[in-house]
Amino acid sequence: MTAKRERHFRQGDLAEGLGRELLRGLAAVAPVPREEDVGFDLVATLLRREADLLFAESSFLVQVKSKSASKLSYNPEQFRWFTKLSLPLFIGKVDLGTARIDLFSTYDALRVNAVEETLYEEVVFYLSKGAWDKRFATRRSRKTAPPVKTSDSPDKEILRIDSSKPILSWTMKDLMDEAFCVQAYRVLSEWVHLWNLNRGLAPIHMARSIDWQTNQVPRFGGTFTYDSPNLWDEMFQAMSPMLHRLGSHLQSQHHRMKAGTPEEQYFEKLHESVTNLFDYLKQMGVDPDPNRHQARGIATSKRQKSGDDPESK
């Protein structure tokens, strides 16, 4: 084997190395060896600063690209892999000339996948303003474009995502600024938090958009939903634990209240409504209270308050 290597491969290695060092200023970073590369280059764990200590918190994944990268594409199999990730995936673009990294979110693709059932033949993240064609923008969402068949890809349904604005951008100099590091922690921590919250909404085909600016803490925006044929089953299966906990809470509160008071009567009706909802869900094939704890609990509470329960005497 001759002692040579493709120049652009070497540039990519340098970009990945610099990106790793820049990220280490904010997180504990574990690089993924090339032979173990399955779609991301770094596994990072955010570090919270408190006096002279650093506390490990949320983890996320990073795919590093060089400044010249204008887009990142996934085929159907790769996109299914992406949607199953349990950790947020960010794309980092590294500029070797300025020693800067721009971190981009892939969240919009996760949001679209949660409320649609289209099997896209290609999903494209546009990582620069020039690469994002404004004609793809829609009133429904300025950040995503609907599946379209274009002249350059007449047989493909393509999901196009505008990821041209970074969620966070910094240099080595910025890492020397304590105020910037605190703000960067808040930004990344909230992005991971919002990603995880929305990940939990996916089973019920619901998602929320995120409003944000570069280097600013994001916040939830509008809500998106999709009515699939299996929505009832999927939604109630996902809601079942929360409904069971709600029923337990109402039962506990009702039991502590003095019999005959307006508050007690209100909670009794509320608890009965939840019990009726359980009965309806059971008819739909989902039983959040298979052992009938809720029904027995409210019956016992009624007997105790009326004095008919021997154990209450």
What's the quick description here?
The chain is of the alpha+beta class and 313 residues long. It is 39% helix and 27% strand.
Account of the 3D structure:
Strand 5 (89-95) and strand 6 form a beta hairpin. It is elongated, with a radius of gyration of 26 Å. The strands form three sheets. It has a six-stranded mixed sheet with strand order 1-2-3-5-6-10. Strands 4-7-9-8 form a four-stranded mixed sheet. Strands 11-12 form a two-stranded antiparallel sheet. 39% of the residues lie in helices and 27% in strands. It has helices at residues 7-24, 76-83, 107-115, 178-201, 231-256, 262-283, 293-306; strands spanning 27-31, 42-50, 53-66, 71-74, 89-95, 100-105, 122-126, 144-150, 153-162, 168-171, 206-211, 219-225. The protein folds into two domains: 7-225, no CATH class; 231-312, no CATH class. By secondary structure, the protein is of the alpha+beta class.
